[in-house]
Amino acid sequence: MYTTMIPMMVQAKKDKKGVPAFNIHALEVVPMMARTAEGKGSPVILQVSVSTAKYIGFQLLADIVREVAEPMEIPVALHLDHASSLDDIEAALAGGFSSVMYDGSRLPLDENIQNTKRAVALARAANASIEAELGIVGRGKIIEAYPYTDPADAKEFVAETGVDALAVGIGTHHGQYKAKTEIRLDILDQIHQAVDIPLVLHGGTGVKEEDVKTCVRLGMLKLNFGTELNVSWVNRAKRVFAEAEPDDSLRELMLLCNAAMAETIARKIDLVRDV
Length: 275
Ligand SMILES: [Zn+2]
Hints:
This protein has helices at 6-15, 30-40, 50-56, 58-69, 86-95, 109-125, 151-161, 185-194, 209-217, 227-243, 250-273; strands spanning 19-23, 44-49, 76-83, 99-102, 129-134, 138-139, 165-168, 173-174, 199-201, 220-225.
């Protein structure tokens, strides 16, 4: 079924299991992602960057995810990842997304709170769920003076905004796949004690598997994986397309690449569900 992430989070908290969130890179992977989760009996959040959403089209993407999800017994949500513009959030909600993220993490705390409140109002009006971010999730290389989330700020932020889930900075990085990060589980523990909503792990690819399990136990109920999925698809594609003849079926070739991504997805589902 097609839902927001709210019922998934309620159940995840009860079951003490995480909910995996996978980044859609192209339409071709959407049915495979949902069916892989269905095969595992796991809820799943399919999410896109604003640029991918604009490339595909907000409504086209939402229509396809809904069509794929509706007959399934598992809950499936479509989530807009890291929107820093309220216009993009409005476009996603109008198109039929069931969940959005407003990312004001680079703004001063007050401004982040004010904008997030507007985004929450938009999401509520559309019966969608909403995630926000406080503290910074890095990109690319590891930075020295890391802007970790302050647990007291997190408490204030959640109380002021009423968001459904909160992404926090504990040392993870987007796009990191060649090494694993030393994350601050002590800070996560403090944030977990300060707020009672689900927390979100960004940059999941760069986190050691045993740390991912600890993150779930410390309240991270939405766990995002993007880069590793992309890497598995492209690595398979390099081999498959190098060996292919030009008149080989493009569909067959892409299915071989999708199969590599499906293996990664299945592994990540096991990782966050069996903690
Ligand atoms: Zn992220």
